[in-house]
Design goal:
heterodimer, A: about 425 residues, mainly beta, Jelly Rolls, 3 domains, seven-stranded antiparallel beta sheet, six-stranded antiparallel beta sheet, about 35% strand, B: about 70 residues, alpha+beta, three-stranded antiparallel beta sheet, 1 helix, about 20% helix, elongated
Chain lengths: ~425, ~70
Amino acid sequence: MPSNSKNIAELLNTDTTIAVTDVADGSITTAKLAADAVTAAKLADDSVVTANIVDGNVTAVKTTGVGRGKNLIINGAMQVAQRYSASSGEGTVTGLQDGYGGVDRFRLSGDTAARATVSKTNANTTPENGFKSAVKIDVTTASGTLSAGNYHYLGYRFEGRHLQHIKKGTSSAESLTLQFWVRSPKTGTHILQIYDNDNNRGISQAYTVSSANTWEKKVMTFAGDTTGTLDEDQNYSLQLYWWLAAGSDYTTGSLRTSWASWTANGTAAGQVNVLDNTSNDFYLTGVQMEVGTNATDFEHRPYHEELHSCMRYYINTRSGGNSYGGIQMDRSVYANYAYGYTSFPAEMRNKPSITFYDGSGNAGSLTENGAGHNRGCVANSHSSHGIAGAESNGTGTGHFSSGAGAGYHLMGTYIADAEL
Amino acid sequence: MKIENAKYMAEKQMDADGKVEDVVTTIACTVDGVPNVSVPIDEGNRHYIEIMRQVKDDGLTIADAD
């Protein structure tokens, strides 16, 4: 019997309490504990220290939501805004109805009469410590009356290669939890939809804006979809929709809150019209989508990492204005051609569309050093890695020079677009 | 997306015998008012997808390469 155990005399003396001092060191072994007998409530704060954890005891399933790469959204803090306007500066695109503008990776899509200035804004009301930027949709042309088929939303598209681990279309399909900060000019029901472009499937959830023009944090979890696998390639597979306005084709019927084949009816049931007045401004930031059912702390990533990730989809060497700092080639022995390799700073998603700008800012041209600006030309011989050539087409101030002076350089900047 | 002035463009490529030939790889066009955008003939490029949609649905024509 251990020296500090209860003895018979003590038990006969009705001393039935077993105190900590009655238990010999090391006498309660793992075999004496029923499975799940020690609950979290029995563990004092900070009682499990690193030394108590056996090497290899923390498995991957216990680390969901921890560490780098948990946020499936690129540029969720809205830091990167490569689209450039000479008049408005970083990120700003005016008169936008359908297309990319504002911050990288987020796209305004729709066909209502509404137009907006979409920009990156250093939020005049910071929603949370650490979020200094947001995408702003400033309605400049209102769409107060919607036809049945009208739609408008702010979207984010994923390529299938980045989502294989959510195991969509399998019996092990993962839940997805989305969090974001929103500031809407309208109170009431707003809709967040996920659309599977590979299989034409969708699911929607409503969130309620309680106070107009006030930052609010929203969290929603979507069940995994056991139907419809996502293609393992670099093309558009999944999209998030922050609905802004929806015609009756989309609002009729009950909100479709379970994964199913997509149809318009019920996709955006209850959605308020955010675009019905030119005084309306809609903001979004702090977007994080992660595997599982918990919304963990936002994964803040450094600007340069987010920029590099964004460059897989869009590269703008004009962010500093007009210059010769983006690209340079030399005229070829073949008339109207120039060659010289310029490597992209990141491998792009696929072969991009290319637009050259000369040193004076003329789109679709390069400057021929010593001969003149605005030599109209298009890129050819380019890949997802870089640009190798240009061909002049006689627009602007005409073709590249020929004959004597064949050493002239073609110079300027470029935009490469491989967005989804 | 407004597409105008679409025209196939050829680049010079060398075959196995060292002969240089013109191979059509891109479409030059004006996209939303921006001229001389080089759009690769690539099913994963969103501009190419839209050009082909407009050819099919809206009657957009693409001029032959020179």
